[in-house]
């Protein structure tokens, strides 16, 4: 019985793992994320990957760009 409960608990944990992914903090309050803010949440994020996520090339990641990158699996912790 304990094995079954442990397996169920592990399955639940793995199923909700994405809900606990890092979220960048908009430290300057401008409504978007700078490269520094993104790299604080995603230390493995490269400048090249940031530029790829920044679809409009304005040097900031807005909510649409962030969500698109998340859905595409580009933001891994």
UniProtKB/TrEMBL annotation:
One of its GO terms (molecular function) is calcium ion binding. InterPro entries: EF-hand-dom_pair (IPR011992), EF_Hand_1_Ca_BS (IPR018247), EF_hand_dom (IPR002048). Residues 1-21 form the signal peptide. Keywords: Signal. Residues 57-77 are annotated as: Disordered. PROSITE patterns: EF_HAND_1, EF_HAND_2. Residues 41-76 form the EF-hand domain. This is EF-hand domain-containing protein. It comes from Rhodalgimonas zhirmunskyi.
